[in-house]
């Protein structure tokens, strides 16, 4: 009752904190009673308010939805109503703000094709050089306003790189002039000195009379040198997004929350959107339905018959989707090897294998991993709770190599294999293909604690409303929870950080 994983210390019962936490415990009269638990809980709450600035709601979703005890536990209709309204609001938000319609997809393809034409006019690149879209514009987790990230695909057996131009920056500089001469706007070559050279530019979306009234006439674009790993990552994420639209809706709210809470900026030592998508996919591929509308992590006792919410595309046995109905979910003991030369590390290869379904196989996966029975709101709350209170940051790595058969990837293993830090609690995220790369390496100092606290803030807000609280104090103001709609709850969860001083700590 005294330990807080967010504060990473024990509370001290009593008025004085100038003593060790166990000293007041030793003075308590035996036997231990409910009053002793109340005293300890009160001490922890005071410590959390003092250190965190808020009192986390740690009630489990099971206890919120099923507050009564006994065998025939009944669902709390008020809590069900909250989650239903939140789920509806999440679906509407995705459709109205984040769903990318065919017109936007066609605009992006038109710009890609036009860019490819200009590349093929430039003598610096081998014949047959292609342009591919990658990132949020193509992976299924973006929005209509996502920038268009593209990269060159140099034909096999050819190269742009030479002793005189080791990164291809000179060739890209010539291409930038071709862009300027052919109508591209605001061509920017500042990032040609990067490890992978990049040209930034704006391209017309199409004829003005074809644009929507609120649509910008130009689309912001990036074109980078040969970047096969980015294309590979995009293809993997796109496949996950196509299996079940639930992941897209969840990702839209999570990205909205992270941006609003100012924890989505690698330049300021917080996590990239890609990092949050990997956290979501780890959650979905390592959780299963546990009954009564809830989900739980895959445990040792359930691994022999567990079916995750999403299949692990790098570990699922490709024979399983075609197996007879009722066949237990199957994973490889070791995934198949499809080596790919690393584009930047001369002596390094990555395993590019993942299950790539054709149209019929994808339809089968969609049947095997449906989302209609899952509550979007309960999944969102479970996601926030998992990373606020359940995930063991000292021992485990967020990884898509965490499987039903093998369990969660251990930090100790990553420390031995790849030299990752292993001396304190920290958020570490393994890239799906560059497994030696920690996507969360940008976090510095107390930023891991800040991100984890934001997970706790988000879960606590949902739990407060679902638990039936009528008011709650946040940001030094009393919030009325009695009539909070689903969209109002989303807006409260995604309440913007006011300034940098507020960004350094969670809501108070």
Q: What does this entry look like structurally?
A:
By secondary structure, the protein is of the alpha+beta class. Helices cover about 40% and strands about 10% of the residues. The protein has 15 helices and 13 strands. The strands form 5 sheets. Strands 3-4-7-6-5 form a 5-stranded mixed sheet, sandwiched between helices. It has a two-stranded antiparallel ribbon with strand order 1-2. A hairpin with a 2-residue loop joins strand 12 and strand 13. The longest helix is centred in the first third of the chain and has 22 residues. The C terminus is likely disordered.
Summarize the structure.
The chain has 15 helices and 13 strands. By secondary structure, it is of the alpha+beta class.
Largest sheet: 5 strands, mixed
Order of helices and strands: EEHHHHHEEHEEEHHHEEEEHHHHEEHH
What's the β-strand tally?
13
Beta-strand percentage range: 5-15%
Strand order of the largest sheet: 3-4-7-6-5
Helix content: 25-40%
Poorly predicted spans: 500-508
* Ends distance: 23 Å
Please give the count of helices: 15
Rg for CA atoms: 25 Å
Write the layout of secondary structure elements.
Layout: E1 3-4, E2 9-10, H1 22-26, H2 34-51, H3 61-65, H4 77-98, H5 102-121, E3 130-134, E4 148-153, H6 169-181, E5 185-188, E6 198-204, E7 218-224, H7 228-243, H8 246-260, H9 273-285, E8 287-291, E9 294-297, E10 339-341, E11 349-351, H10 359-368, H11 376-390, H12 411-418, H13 447-466, E12 471-474, E13 477-480, H14 486-493, H15 500-503
Parallel strand pairs: 4-7
Antiparallel strand pairs: 1-2, 3-4, 5-6, 6-7, 8-9, 10-11, 12-13
